[in-house]
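Appendix B. One record, verbatim.
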Amino acid sequence: MVVEKGQFNFKIKEMIDFLTFKSFITPTVLILFYYIGAVIIPIFSFTLMLWIKDRYFKKVSLTLKESITSNTTLSQRIIFIAIFIGLFLLMELFWRMMFEFLIAYFDMHDSLMRLSEE
């Protein structure tokens, strides 16, 4: 791979800007953390919850399940599940909005830095 002198100087400038915190890697990293939080953490949390329930609280879980099925109607259980799904979707929406705000903030910072260099 041949690197011309102009490209080499540009790469050095990018590295110096990165090391002196004049440029950020944050938007790229934020996208990665968004997907970790939106997809991987809920799946991992649900799996961990099931494992803990089966491992340490098996009798309590069975008693609670019997109590819920005998003391609630089908419509009450459906309402509970609908509320849970709605709250989960609101949580995901909030997570997305928080990361959009952070990415927009860092994009504004980059734009302002470019304007100040001109």
